[in-house]
Structure formats: structure tokens, C-alpha cells
């Protein structure tokens, strides 16, 4: 076989390898794109299924939503669950589904002057430690976490809601 035919065969083999590598890269990029599209389009956890953790006096409890209301609707909840009040602090932990969004911590004390509200922006915090008793002697009565979320209506459609998790202290 002549050197010209060998060189031509080698060039063809090189082009075949380049085409194969280009096809593999294209398939990889398409797979990554499809995964990212699926991940962004998949439904989130409905707000009514999300739980927060509250720790006080050596006890940790998972708290379900007190209310889940469609935007611009008033809704009433029942009686929030109660826990014993620690003499030092109460810890509120929110899951990633809430921490990734803006959320609000409302603390209601037996002295209205001590009431406090803290708003967290997306990704800022996943936990808040509240004083059980303030420097002025006010005792924590209720702690509430609120966040904008998504829930599912009776027809199975996703709807925006405001969810509130509430716990009372004794």
C-alpha cells in the first residue's frame, strides 16, 4: 500500500474519531439540559406537607402548618400545638424548601412591647433562636413562621399560598 493511501486512511480515521467525540459531547449536553429542565419543572413539596422543627425545654417537635391560605384569602386555624417553655431559648428550624425562600419569624410575648418580627431573605437562614424570656422579663407565648409557598387545590392545580406554622408555649 502506498504512503498516500495510508495517509488518506489515517485522515479518515482521525475525522471519524473527531465526529464520534463531537456526537458524545452533544449527547452529554442534551442529557444535562434535559435533566435541568426536568428539575426546574418538577412540582415542589406542597406547603401543607412541609414541617418545621421547634426545640424548647429539651423537647423537639415537628410542627405541621397551622394555616395554609390562598393569597388574599382569610382563613382561620384551630388551636396551635403547645410546648413547655425553656428558660433560655427556643430554636425554630425550617427545611430547605422554606429557607430557600423569604420567610418571616413572628414572636409574641406576654408583654406586647417585647413582640418581635424578623424577615429572612432567600437562603439567609434555616434556623432562628428566640429568647424564651427577654431581658425585661417578658415570656414567649407564641412563635410563628410564615412563608409564601405552593399547594395543590381540589382540581390538582398548583396555587400560591401563604403557610403559617404556629406553636404556643406554656
Automatic annotation (TrEMBL):
Keywords: Membrane, Transmembrane, Transmembrane helix
Spans traversing the lipid bilayer: 15-36
Organism: Corynebacterium glaucum
Protein name: DUF2771 domain-containing protein
InterPro entries: DUF2771
